[in-house]
Amino acid sequence: MGASFIRSCILVLAAGLAGSPAFALQSGGVEVGDLETGSVIGQSFKALDVDLSLTAMNVGGKNAWYPPTSVLSLSREGTGARGGRPVVIQVTNKLASDYTFHLAADSSQSGPWSLNTTVVLKPGETKYIGIPISDLTYVTTNNVLRYLNPSDPQGLGGQLLILR
Question: What is the C-alpha to C-alpha distance for residues 139 and 26, in angstroms, rounded to an integer?
Fold first, then answer.
């Protein structure tokens, strides 16, 4: 086994023992933070482009993550031409109460080490989620990640389609 594989295993194990709400397999995992102090695989969030913006809001009397469908292109014409820089997702809560953002592969279509992250946002709060490109490349067999608030069964989630 290579040193890179062993480091990845140690990072995943350490994240699990620390109670981290984010798991991923390839480059050391997903990181959640604010724009000024957050970083992923050694790169500051403020030095990276925001690739997707998602907002918790009330739509038609239901709490929802908007937009309901997002597309992330990892092709050469999309984010894939960025030399491996991570993807950054901005999530904002415009609701009057705490709201959870949960992003994961469909459990029936994903492996045991698929991307799975959760962050709770206070009213008016914005957080950033940094995801290494390699983690998005291997997240799921059907190229779809789902985002939702697992504690709001009446709330509307969405899906992130990954084009490779």
Answer: 9
Residues 58/148, Cβ–Cβ less than 8 Å: no
Cα 83 versus chain centre, distance: 19
Q: Which residue ranges of the chain lie beneath pLDDT 70? A: 1-28, 76-83, 106-114, 137-141
Looking only at the bridges linking them, the beta strands covering 52-59 and 87-93 are parallel
User: Could you tell me the domains of the chain?
Assistant: 3-163 (2.60.40.420)
- Give the chain's mean pLDDT: 79
User: Are 130 and 46 contacting, i.e. CB atoms less than 8 angstroms apart?
Assistant: no
Structure-derived torsion over alpha carbons of residues 144, 43, 4, 27, reported in degrees to the nearest 10? -10
pLDDT value for 121: 97
- Kindly report the number of other CB atoms within 10 A of residue 142's CB atom: 13
pTM across the whole model: 0.76
Longest Cα–Cα distance of the chain, Å, equals: 53
Specify which residues 87 forms β-bridges with. Answer: 131
